[in-house]
Each structure stands twice: as structure tokens, then as C-alpha cells.
Queue: 2 jobs
Job 1
Amino acid sequence: MDWVEDAVEVIDQTMLPGALRVLRLTTVADVVAAIDRLAVRGAPALGVVGGFGVALAHRESAGDSAQLQALLGDLENARPTAVNLSLMVRRVAEFAPQGFGAVLEAALEVRDQEIAASRKMATRGADFAAQLVDGRPMTVMTICNTGALAAVEGGTALAVAEELHRRGLLEEVVALETRPLLQGARLTTWELARMGAPHRLIVDSAAASVLARGFVDVVLTGADRIAANADTANKIGTYGLALAAADAGVPFVVVAPESTIDLGTTSGASIPIEDRGAREVVSYPREGTAPPETKAINPAFDVTRADLITAIVTERRVVNLSEGATLTGEPEATPLR
Ligand code: MRU
């Protein structure tokens, strides 16, 4: 994703792995639609596209502050769970009074901060994972997609797996397919293949058994919002994975930038969980998956309690929850300027 000739360019993630298509988003409505249909997705990527969206909103509103506020609201509310989106929209919008140039500069800074954060999470996360297994090659289990597609470069949990691979410490990645929209099957396997990293795909319902049979050394996941008490919202299925990991005695590590930590949300109970409606469950990957009139429950995320999480790795720190560390009392994300 980048700002290219007055527009935002993103890979259309709905087309992968079949086709690598770049979308040009020239209006706020384009950005909101791309977020809504998950053409662009993943918490850090949502923050960056939100920042660029503010630049589009500034241009579109042409000095009309009521229109600017309405467009900013559209951006912030495009998806509710990943805090990065609203945080970065607000952060970049602070520069609106200084003009378009200042807004774009701030959006580019958000992009650069996320890229730098990905690099640091990769090395810090790989160091921590290596320590968990006494430096031997390891099998990593992961859910959803947390690679470069979900960020700008690198990613979060998958960036750690990539770094382990680079160090010769990755036995393989076991990727969950991640129903209903199959981010694991469609995107994570695509990214792992491009890295040349060994991997196998499993159906979501195989995860608990694969963990219990001792095939996995560490579970690495991303996060969409981490509350002050370290309860963590991530892709639906993450909570079940954490329960199964705890039962199997496998460390469960969350990798996320500081921008995903929301100290204003006290616990997971207050994190808004997006419900994406029945269609994705009854008609995906194709019409007829279930009879069309079937009702469904489709929460896109769930909350994993802090006590099920071994540690949270950010670009700045490893918060070892299993050793009693907490998130609070630490500095918040770096201000833009
Ligand atoms: O619905 P999605 O695909 O946007 O959900 C994404 C996830 O749950 C990711 O794990 C999370 O955003 C972290 S991405 C580095």
C-alpha cells in the first residue's frame, strides 16, 4: 500500500491468491468500500489506509469543515474492532488546520512508523520465540493473515515467522484456514510461499487436536485491539486457539504494534466486535454453501483473556504476562511530531 500520484494504491486482497490486482482509491468512499469488503484489511494496514484516507477527505472537502468531519466519521466507522483505524484517522486529522501538505506528511509518517514497527517486532518476536524453545528450530501455528498484506511491509506474527525462517529456526508454519473469509488459506499461504517458508494448511477445527498432539512449539497471532488489562481482540477463532494452546501447554504469543494497544479500553468486555452478517457464512466461498435463507452468527473477532496469553510482543517491549508483567505504566505510541 502506498500514496501514489494523488491516490492510495492497495493490493485487492479479495482477489488473492488467484490474481494480484492493484486498486487505486481516489475518494473517501473508495477507501470505505475497500475496507468494508476487506480489499484492504489487517489492523496496521487499516491504520495506514485510514491516515491516507484523511488526506483524501481533506482534498474532497475543500475547506468545508462540516464535510470534512462527516468524511472523517465515515473513515473511522468503516470497521469498529481494529483500534488502529480510528486512532490513525484522529492522529492525522489533527494536522487538517495546517493544510493538505501537513496532512499528507502525517499520513506518510504513520506509514513509515508502521514499517519500522514491523521490522522491530520481527526481530524482538524471533528473539523471544527462540528463547521459549532454547534456540532450536520450531513449528509455529498461526491464524488469519498477519503478514505484509495486513501491514505495509513485514507484518506482525507472520513477520516473526519470516525472521525465524531467515535465521534457519523455522521448522514450519501451520496456518489455520480462517473461516469464513479464508484469510489463512488465501493470503497467509500465498505470503509464506513467496517467502519460501515451509508451511502446511489446516482446517480451523483441526487446530486443537494438532496442538494436543504436540506438533506445535509456539502459537503466534496478531491483534486488532489490546485492552489495558491485556485482553486481546483478534480474528474469530483466536480465543479457541488460546484455550487449546493452554490445554496443550504451548506458549501463546501476541505480536502487535503499540498502535494496537488501547489503554482507554479497560478490558475485553468493552471491545466492539464486528458482526459481518450471514452472507459470508452461508454463501462463501460460493452461493449454496448453505441454503440461502439460513440464518447465521458471524462475529469477525473474538476476545482472548489476558490469562491465556503468554506474552505480548510490540516494537518496543516484550510484556511477559505469564511472569506477571502488565501493559500499563509504559509509554504510549510515539507521537507523530
Ligand atoms: O477481518 P480481518 O482480516 O481484518 O482480521 C485481521 C486479523 O484479525 C489480524 O489478525 C489482525 O488485524 C492483525 S494483522 C497484523
Job 2
Amino acid sequence: MSVVIRALGASIPPQRITNEDLAARVDTTDDWIRSHTGIGARHFAPDGILTSDMAAEAAKTAMAKAKIGPHDLDLIVVATATPDYFGFPATACIVQDKIGAYGCAAYDIVAGCTGFIYALHAASSMLETSHGRHALVIGAEALSRIVDWNDRGTCVLFGDGAAAAVISRIDEAGRGCLSFLLGADGGGARDLYLVQAERDRTFERAQPVVPVISMNGRKVYDFAVKSITVMIERLMHKTVYRLEDFAWIVPHQANARIVQAAAKRFNIPQDKIYLNIEEYANTSAASIPLALAEMDQKGLLKPGDLVMLVGFGAGLTYGAAVVRW
Ligand code: UT7
């Protein structure tokens, strides 16, 4: 028995914002953003489009490709830092309603930019241990709604979008999700968190809370390089695979320099690492599935390919997955 990624779908909002567009309203330059991050553009969801809208669109595309209907689903897991409603209900439940998958289980996972890997682990484990056949694993974000436009160190980094994977339990062995590594370092929680702009609220004087991202960029950068390095080392130790066995490494797209630093440490050729940060910026939990959906669309993922997913983010969390395509 294996749990395989059977099909992928993406939803990219049409509003494309270049670095030059940002430089017209923020004290920054195209040169600074490109040289420090590798980002050239990002896409923003227009007013009225929620995280669940992008997630549902991506889900419908993935289900059509997988040739399954909403009633075939046993579970929907949405990884997001920007749910439609902070707290509850889960965005996964709203997605369930929007795609008409009534009755299946649905919940969200909060693991920052590592969210898709955490969600893939949770959903594939559920399929392995239950009688379930199919699950939707979605990474979806509307980060443009929570960036602090007064903080040029963070507001240039993020973009919106969603991608969904249909995962299915099959009888064949040795394919799909082969191995996972998940971890967290809660001591770094304050290095990347949502700060509530309005703090002096009381029950009598309720004010809408507008949370914004607060990040200690340098600390998160160091954590990211270290955690990618440690995860690759641990995967090589824990599994039978060597780095040369991997057709692709698909990292969380936070900063091209983070990925390049890790690649240099292991002499990984750049053409084995998939990067699309230049077009989409950092889409947090959506970044890894968006990269996979784009690779799939381009025909880059061949049956039998060994693929490593590796992510890190708020928590601070980290995670990796080994997937046989
Ligand atoms: O996905 C979640 C995980 N997040 C990450 O992985 C992000 C990790 N961190 C990073 O990628 C990097 O730390 C950043 C891209 C956020 C920042 O790069 P950096 O090389 O660490 O820059 P810095 O914050 O040390 O700032 C260097 C300089 C400062 O100016 P001074 O003090 O040297 O004069 C900043 O004020 O760059 C300045 N700066 C900017 N200048 C133009 C910061 N942001 C900007 C900007 N445009 N947008």
C-alpha cells in the first residue's frame, strides 16, 4: 500500500505586482528586492477573493485531473496562515462547502510555511490508518492582507495563491509518500508571528483586530539555512536514499539565497532545485504545492522520480518529505 500524490491544481490571482509597482509606494528598489531575495513579482488576491476561494479553485482543478468527484473525498486539510476567519471555523470546512464535498472530515493546520508538509503527513497518515481512499491537501494564502506596509523589510516578500494535491491510497508498494521528517523549535516563535495592531480591546470596546506580520528576518534566515541543512543530513541518515538519487528538491520559496546557501553546502546542482520565487514571491504554505503544480504542468515530474520537499517557517517549524512520483 502507498499514498500517492495523484494530481495537482493551482489558483494564482490575476493581479500581478512587480517590484517596480511596490517601489512606487514603499521605500525600496527592484535591485534590492532581487539581490536580497530573488523575487521579481507577486500576485495579490483582489478584494472579495478569500483564501477559501483560491483553495476551492485549486481543489476543483486537482479533482478534475484526478478524475474524482467531491463525494470521493474522505478528508480535506488546508494549511494556511491566513484563514478566512482567524480562530474558527476552519477554512477547510468552507472549502468543503464550496466544492460540495459534504460529510468528509475537514480541518486546518497552522505550521507557517511548513504547513503543506505537515498537512501532507497528516492526510497521508489518515489514509494509511483508515479505510479512506482520497484526500485533498491544500496550501492557500492571502498574505497581502496581513503584511505591514510600514515595514519594508517584510512587505516586499509575500504573495497570494493556492495549490491543492489530491492524494490517494493505492495497493502498489514503494510509491508516493515514502518518508517524513517534522520538527519545531518553539523558542523561535517570537521571530515570526502575527502581531495584533489594536491591543487595548475590552469586551465593552471591541475593536476589529488587524493582525500584521512581524519577522526578525536575520534570525529566520539563519534558522532556515540551518534547518534545510540539518533536514537533508537527517534524511540521508534515516533513509536509504543518497542525494544523487533525487531528481528534484522542491524547497519552500522564501528566499533564493537561503536555498543557494544550502545547495552550496551539499554541492547540489542548481538545476535539481526548483525555484519559482521570482514570479510568486513567498506564498507561505502555498509555496511548495504551487511549485509542484507548476512542475507538473510543465511535465517535469516523471513517474519514478524521487522528489524531496523541504520547508521551514513560523513556529519555528521545519519539515521534509520524500516522495516517489
Ligand atoms: O517564509 C517564512 C520564512 N521567512 C524567511 O525565510 C525570511 C528570512 N529572511 C530573509 O530572507 C532576509 O533576512 C530578508 C530578505 C528578510 C532581509 O535580508 P537581509 O540581507 O537580512 O537584510 P537586512 O534585514 O539585514 O537589511 C539590510 C539593509 C538594511 O539597511 P541598513 O541598516 O544596512 O542601512 C535595511 O534597512 O537593507 C535595508 N532594507 C531594505 N532596503 C530596501 C530592508 N528591507 C529593504 C527593502 N528595500 N525592502
